[in-house]
Amino acid sequence: MSVNKSVYISQSNYIPWKGYFDSINQVDEFIIYDEVQYTRRDWRNRNKIKTTQGVQWLSVPVQTKGRFLQKINETKVSNAQWGKKHWQILQHNYSKAPFFELYASVFAPLFMHPPSEWLSEINYAFIKQVCQVLGIQTHLSFSRNFTLTTGKTERLVDLCQQVGATDYYSGMAAKNYLDETLFAQANIRVHYINYTAYPTYPQLYPPFEHAVSILDLLFNTGEKARDFMKTFEQ
């Protein structure tokens, strides 16, 4: 009797938005795919929060000069004080949020004493902590622990085969580049996750904004955060 196994493969993001964690919760195994080129002005080292002045970016400063071809897992922090600064900004803007104090002791240590000087490891620490808070049981792994082949879709198919996946999940944007025939030849079904039509929740500083860090949802809704996501049973 065959056993189905679902997999999502994605680059790590810094304190990602709620959709990222729905992606994780959707599958049996989530592979952090950081053996690809680091891209500037992207979600790898930054994310958005709500402030009294509107939406603001929180960016982890990283070394990029002369490192154009560096991979995400080769990207290093350039200022050791970034975490303290980010936590001060979060305190200033979310201290009045109903559940800020509930999670302050959970997340403050990661900002005040970052677990690594490597961006990929920092992102992983936050992702793992949020998964724990939300009760997500999905197995997290790194693509570096597998043998990686060449070719954009070929590499994804090969990773799926190495973990015994029968189903591959991805965002809608992947439709533009995935060669689904390669998945079909490997007997792997492809599914696309729709990240639209999320419900709104009580949020500070209107107007409402969906595309912000998951921390915004947690600080504003506490243990009810799962009710405003898509992959948790209500």
Commentary on this structure:
- With 234 residues, the chain is of the alpha/beta class.
- It has one domain.
- Helices cover 32% and strands 15% of the residues.
- The strands form two sheets. It has a five-stranded parallel β-sheet with strand order 5-2-1-6-7. Strands 3-4 form a two-stranded antiparallel sheet.
- Helix 2 runs antiparallel to helix 3 (100-112).
- It is globular and about 55 Å long.
- The model has no long low-confidence stretch (mean pLDDT 96).
Low-confidence stretches: none
Name the strands of the widest sheet in spatial order: 5-2-1-6-7
Mean pLDDT: 96
**What is the approximate shape?**
globular
Q: How helical, in percent, are the residues?
A: 25-40%
Amino- and carboxy-terminal Cα gap: 31 Å
Strand content: 5-15%
Number of strands: 7
The radius of gyration computed from the alpha-carbon positions, rounded to a whole number of angstroms, is 18 Å
Number of spatially distinct domains: 1
Structural class: alpha/beta
Number of distinct helices: 7
Biggest β-sheet: count, sense, barrel? 5 strands, parallel
Q: Could you state the order of secondary-structure elements as H and E?
A: EHEEEHHHEHEHEH
